[in-house]
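Changelog note: in this version the structure field was regenerated for every chain. One regenerated record is shown below for reference.
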Amino acid sequence: MSYDIWNLEFSSSTFEVLGYEFARVDDYQSAVARLHRRATGIVHAGKIHEGSPERPGTMQVTYTARWVGTGAEPAARIHMPDACALIHDICLWWSLLGGAFVTVGQRREFEGATFYGMRKAGSDAQLLSVVTAAAQGVQDHEGAKDLGLFPGMFLLQESARTGVVTYETLFVSTLVDLLCSKARVPSWSDEESRVIQAAKEASITALAPFVQDGTAVARNVIEPAIGGLKRLGAPAAADKLMAFMSTTPALSALALDARVVESHARAFNQLRNAAVHYAGFPDKIAIDFTNGTKFVIRRKASFYTLALGAGIYARVFKDIALLHFLRTIGVQAPDVERPLDDMLANFFGTGVHNGQWWLSDAPRADVEFEREAP
């Protein structure tokens, strides 16, 4: 079967990926010239220091892909396997690792021309190699459907197409919750469980006489309190995130101290809630870094600082998620992994992200160093 491939730019006129032969369309050069080009730049303190302007364009068919492999065409493992072939998964990996919306099938030129994210591989040869390895890794992984690749990779893709911090944080927040649902949170001991159960029963018994059917107090105060008590002892969002961060292969090389993991897990949860729900902090946020720095975001910090912090965390956790997926399916791609590892080591080690202190643009009244690195 032959497929139209949209928006793919590549240095070779023909190449093969896992049994698919890709070939340029006859009007490749003119099609590429009509592609949408997003604006790029490095923004610091409200000024663009490097960049190129946006060039409006449209989606274009630039390649065709034809199944030439042995046997029947494999089904997708990330997309719906009953409806999609492997080529759909290949294009999804190409989008995430190549930084452009590469897609397959019937589309319209004016539909979704936005490009996605930053390219993760240097040369075309490196990009082709890691896309091939990633798509093959998913095919070979027996438990691929339980890894969160769907919908996790689509959340990664959608988070990269928006420049609005709260939208990006929403997508990444859902992605993080998905990954945390796969992590195992340490259980309470038998003695701790007995104490929790006794406290739960005593509290519910004490509140029970105040339940009066139909009253506003019963509906809005007592019954919700009893509902909360029934969940007493269940892991909180920060506990689940700590469990994920402590076990993901994305961070294993960093050997992060438990104190650092806990402070960042709690900070991410508070910042995302503040940015998405426009809520302040119940208390100040203290964040530890590996080099000994302890940084504080004050309780009455401005929404600008909250959004700025949430936006940086969203980008950090996108890098973590991509590395998590690649390493969980057994892909070895040093050219892709090394820059992400360095970025994460700098952030958790010193608080530096993308070459600058992560909250250097925040108003001084919002932040303070409680302890600086020795």
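Spot check on this record: The first strand starts at residue 2 and ends at 6. The chain has three domains: 2-140, 190-230, 236-371.
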